[in-house]
Amino acid sequence: MAAVRCIDVCKTYRQGDVDIKALDHVSVVIEEGDFVCLSAPSGGGKTTLLNAIGGLDIPDSGEVWVAERRIDQLSKGALAQLRLLRIGFVFQAYNLIPVLTARENVEFVMQVQGIAGHKRSEKSMAILKEVGLEGLENRRPAEMSGGQQQRVAVARAIVSKPTLVLADEPTANLDSKTSDALMELFVELNEHHGTTFIIATHDQRVMSYAKRLIKMLDGKIVDDIQQQAA
After folding, report:
1. Which of 44, 81, 101, 102 is 20 to 30 A from 123, alpha carbon to alpha carbon?
2. Rounded to whole angstroms, how far apart are CA atoms 174 and 147?
3. What is the CATH number of the domain that holds 110?
4. pTM for the full model?
């Protein structure tokens, strides 16, 4: 079954007096359990496509389907519920809550989902250990490095084991060792839990882990390659 279907999706932004086609008639199907990297030069459309799939950007035309639901036509409430229960986001800017500790940031989504307190604590501590942050659970974002904050953001995105994870440059602030450890964690979730990953990246090391590499240019898909993952 398809995890994601985009059909003839277009998105244009106004920049001064110029219209920029961020997505130009994009059609793509991503199956459940796939591990996809989106690659493009800056402004090539990869982040806009990722945001359209996550319901953060509504296309000007075309259709976006996630988990067999057409999300570009959902109400705000229904879309928020779908994102809460089915999609994990890893943003380039982290989007951590400054007044919360690392553990509390990871627990936040589970709290909204209604998961009991003892379960939240157990799961958050386990995932923080898994991403290499054991002992830093009680630090707030301002007390952590950029790489540590990124790992908190990753832990928050995957702690509830969503069926789809969307990641925008997840290794941008990580050294090569931590980057490889993060990608191996993604691969483990993909292989053992069937989590679908769509990762927008410039990083060749990240691309080497993908089963499928989709290249974009000027808002269009120009190549779609099945590859042997690292």
Report:
1. 81
2. 5
3. 3.40.50.300
4. 0.89
pLDDT higher than 80, residue 173:
no
Residue-wise pLDDT for 90-132, tens only, equals 887 778 999 999 999 999 888 888 888 888 888 999 989 888 8
Contact between residue 166 and residue 196 where contact means Cβ atoms under 8 Å apart: no
Both tokens of residue 227? 């590859």
Radius of gyration over alpha carbons of the chain, in Å?
A: 17
Tokens 């679908």: give the residue: 196
The parent domain of residue 198 ranges over 2-226
Give the three-state DSSP class for 211. coil
Dihedral of CA 217/202/198/168: which sign?
negative
* Residue 227: alpha-carbon gap to chain centroid: 20
Mean pLDDT of 55-74: 93
- Please state, in angstroms and rounded to a whole number, the distance separating the CA atoms of residues 90 and 161: 13
Number of domains in the chain: 1
Q: Both tokens of residue 125?
A: 């501590």
